[in-house]
Amino acid sequence: MSPNYIRSFSEGCLRPPTVIGQFHTLFFGSIRMFFLGVLGFAVYGNEALHFSCDPDKREVNLFCYNQFRPITPQVFWALQLVIVLVPGAFFHLYAACKSIKQEDILQKSSYTGFYIFSVFLRIVLEVVAFWLQIQLFGFKVNAIYMCDVGALEKKFNITRCMVPEHFEKTIFLIAMYTFTVITVILCVAEIFEISCRRLGFLKTQ
């Protein structure tokens, strides 16, 4: 791929053809990633080390932590961010290969339809991630986790485990849910902006 294609691709990703799309990129790329990268590490970085059960044995702690966290929240949210970026990245890669200028995307119906489809896919992926987050993490992190250690210890089946910084994790969960809702709203608003531009209610950029 030539440098011109790479430049067109990067410009398309950073400066989408709509005002709301550009704001979405700023919100998604800056605030959300900063929140996850910096604060997420501070809240979840040492969780496995401070997760302790009764009896406080290394094998019990590891077994119960794996049961408590089938996937760590940082990994889940990082995957969510990457996957949600894929539809837009494919569109801008297509636009770069076809030498489509950003200002032309909203002028031709086929380009506009393809772009709207990529935004709609982002909405679907965000909604799926929202549902998966509910299934994996719920809305609240409790201070005590009851772990089933029947497969590890035959003397007892249920043990109590202490979850470190559970209140901070609950706040972080709510924040990530909020970010998902905001990005979905922005995507819907972007489709609405495109429709208004196509109908002539708004001037094209």
Could you please describe the fold and organization of this structure?
With 205 residues, the chain is mainly α. It has a single domain (19-202), classed as Gap junction channel protein cysteine-rich domain (de novo design (two linked rop proteins)). It contains 8 helices and 3 strands; from the N terminus they run αααβααααββα. The protein has helices spanning 3-14, 19-44, 47-50, 58-68, 73-97, 102-105, 109-137, 166-199, and strands spanning 52-53, 144-148, 158-162. The chain has a 3-stranded antiparallel β-sheet. The longest helix is centred in the last third of the chain and has 34 residues, at 166-199. It is elongated.
Estimated structural class: mainly alpha
Strand content: 5-15%
The total count of strands amounts to 3
* Run of helices and strands: HHHEHHHHEEH
- Separation of the first and last Cα atoms: 28 Å
Return the CATH class: Mainly Alpha
The biggest sheet amounts to:
3 strands, antiparallel
Coarse morphology: elongated
Number of helices: 8
* CATH fold annotation: de novo design (two linked rop proteins)
What CATH architecture do you see? Answer: Up-down Bundle
Radius of gyration: 22 Å
- Arithmetic mean pLDDT: 81
Q: What is the strand arrangement across the widest sheet?
A: 1-3-2
Helix content: over 70%
Q: How many distinct domains?
A: 1
Low-confidence stretches: none
Give the CATH H-level superfamily.
Gap junction channel protein cysteine-rich domain
